[in-house]
């Protein structure tokens, strides 16, 4: 089976390098490799040696042992894609966008069968198919961030469901049929009997946020299993907000990212080289 993580060694060092604004030549010099070798590592065509992994981790402020586990494909999270407990169920909709899979989710309150649609995966038809297949009643659309691979098709979902759409107040706004409802850190929304708290996780985008309910957090592109989303706006904000607002949650909380497998707070504390 292919290695399941969203990001490989090359993605991780590239994100850490760009996020901290260090040039390829600075890193290559410090690591005792050529710029061409570093470029090939970032493009997955050159495998690093163990000592190179530790040296690069040190230069990039990453955890060397955790990075080595990913470079050698020794770790991936236990990640059941359909998870269910007494109060809630999570249905994952994974669809290719530009050749890469993107995740949207249905968060279902089991007591009422009310559901939140979390992101669109740019495939509103597939989201609506799952709504029908599971016979749930969508009551809200929650957007982790505005990138098109997570929000394309929003007007179609709005028309089909009649739901209000919630997005962080600091986030650029995607195309929408209706006035978007703006939310902020610590706001609480209800989905059936579930209370869903908005958690700030900016950095990948200005107003990226996560949605937390009980033992489930929908994190968009803030954190992936073993990596983080591209720190387009602020590396520091991304690392700090994930550390302070997500990795401070109990180890058992399951994180549902916008790309790649779900993971848990405990797994990420033990294995994510950015933390
Ligand atoms: Fe994104």
What amount of the residues lies in strands?
25-35%
The low-confidence parts are none
Number of helices: 10
Principal-axis shape equals: elongated
Major β-sheet, in short? 7 strands, mixed
Number of E-type strands: 15
What is the residue-averaged pLDDT?
95
Main-sheet strand order equals 1-2-3-4-5-6-7
Report the helical percentage. Answer: 25-40%
Architecture of the largest domain, CATH level 2? 4-Layer Sandwich
Could you tell me the radius of gyration in angstroms?
Answer: 19 Å
Please identify the structural class as seen in this structure.
alpha/beta
List bound small molecules.
fe (ii) ion
Structural write-up:
The protein is of the alpha/beta class and 275 residues long. The protein has 2 domains: 9-71, 434 Repressor (Amino-terminal Domain) (Orthogonal Bundle); 83-271, 4-Layer Sandwich (Metallo-beta-lactamase, Chain A), CATH 3.60.15.10. It contains 10 helices and 15 strands. The chain has helices at 9-19, 24-31, 35-42, 50-59, 64-71, 124-133, 148-151, 154-161, 235-245, 265-271, and strands at residues 83-84, 88-97, 100-109, 114-118, 137-142, 164-168, 181-183, 188-191, 194-200, 209-213, 216-220, 223-224, 227-228, 254-257, 263-264. A 7-stranded mixed beta sheet has the order 1-2-3-4-5-6-7, covered by helices on one side. Strands 8-9-10-11-14-15 form a 6-stranded mixed beta sheet. Helix 2 packs across helix 3, helix 4 (50-59) packs across helix 5 and helix 6 packs parallel to helix 8. The longest helix is centred in the N-terminal third of the chain and has 11 residues, at 9-19. The radius of gyration is 19 Å and the shape is elongated. The two termini are 27 Å apart. The mean pLDDT is 95.
